[in-house]
Amino acid sequence: MSEPSILITGGAGYIGSHVLKQLAGRGERVVVLDNLSTGFREAVIHGQLVVGDTGDAGLVAELLDRHNVETVMHFAAHTIVPESVRDPLKYYANNTCSTRTLLEQCRRAGVRHFIFSSTAAVYGIPESGEADEETPTSPINPYGTSKLMSEWMLRDLAAASDMTYVALRYFNVAGSDPEGEVGQRTPNATLLIKVAAEAALGKRPRIAIFGTDYPTADGTGVRDYIHVSDLADAHLKALDYLRGGGASQVLNCGYGHGYSVREVLDTVERVHGAPLPIVEEARRAGDPPLLIARAERIRSVLGWEPRHDDLEFIVRTALEWEKKLTTE
Ligand code: UDP
Fold it and tell me: pLDDT of 260-309, one tens digit each?
């Protein structure tokens, strides 16, 4: 049998490709499964890419066996909140039903560890604007619900088997690989820093601030932005933790403090050195005023320490990547 390896679903996507790079950097054996619906072949800069779906039981079974998969890192998902509101069944099919298929095959093949991309969207709109892992989950859109249902399947499967897992609840992931090898390619992006970088480079005519009348210091929404390389590192720490016999965990992944939309846009203007074409619009439906991680647990359990807790750095790497994309 071949050496144990790691299956990375969605490894051709934004976050998966950053994790793939770090895993390869320390010599892990990896295989990527991605249907390229939103991922890009060019993002798989290491290991083998298998083009296919996580909901394809036969393909998944074959991959788990052929590559002697010990750990699955599951990134493959649809992630656009407004789209999930318009087309909920698409989200339940891919994010929930396909995860169930994947888990069924993991169980059959005796996969030992599972690392899952979850989201702060499972909290909905927490009263204080801050959420720790004990904050009641109450998603307000199908995206959040589809991810929460997968968390529950994982919890129940882990209780009924030897598999252990870490579910990481991501807050606002942003920025790109500081070495510029991988980045965020998503077309029609909706995430603030990506949209702002596109607007700075003239790829969009304007950027809208969605809501200036929130009960926050400057009236705009506040979020906990985390650099994608720090988030990727949390996955490697989760892997080491599970391999070391750690018990299953659900962990917030954020820095524990936030920035407003205006602060983000001011930073983009400063780093880019030119004003942005900003317009003010009404609030976007379903946006909480404030969403900040309480993230002590991930530090104590995984020993994770962020290295890029710096909005300027996040914005600079996003802008550099966006420039690189224009010259491709
Ligand atoms: N936002 C904005 N303009 C945009 C995109 C986002 O004002 O073009 C705001 C949004 O209302 C929220 C924050 O930026 O307050 C972060 O939104 P994003 O979509 O990046 O992530 P979310 O927090 O919704 O997951």
Answer: 999 999 999 999 999 999 999 999 987 889 999 999 999 999 999 999 99
Q: Is the CB of residue 195 below 6 angstroms from any atom belonging to ligand 1?
A: yes
Share of the chain above pLDDT 70, in %: 100
Our answer on whether the CB atom of 144 is closer than 6 Å to any ligand 1 atom is no
Q: Are 181 and 45 in contact (CB under 8 A)?
A: yes
What CATH number did the domain enclosing 154 receive?
3.40.50.720
Q: Which two tokens stand for residue 68?
A: 């002697």
Find out whether the beta carbon of 209 lies less than 6 Å from any atom of ligand 1: yes
Q: Cβ(218) to ligand 1 under 6 A?
A: no
pTM over 0.85: yes
Signed CA dihedral, 113, 95, 283, 131: sign only: negative
Same domain, 164 and 285: no
Local confidence band at 156 (pLDDT 50, 70, 90 cut-offs): very high
Q: Which domain holds residue 290?
A: 192-224+256-327
Note whether 241 and 320 are same-domain residues.
no
**Distant-in-sequence, close-in-space partners of 81: CB < 8 Å, separation ≥ 6:** 121, 141, 143, 144, 190, 286
Span from the CA of 261 to the centroid of ligand 1 (angstroms)? 7
| Smallest CA separation from ligand 1 atom 12, residue | 221
User: Ligand 1, atom 19: nearest CA belongs to which residue?
Assistant: 191
Among protein residues, the one whose CA lies closest to atom 5 of ligand 1:
192
pLDDT averaged over the chain? 96
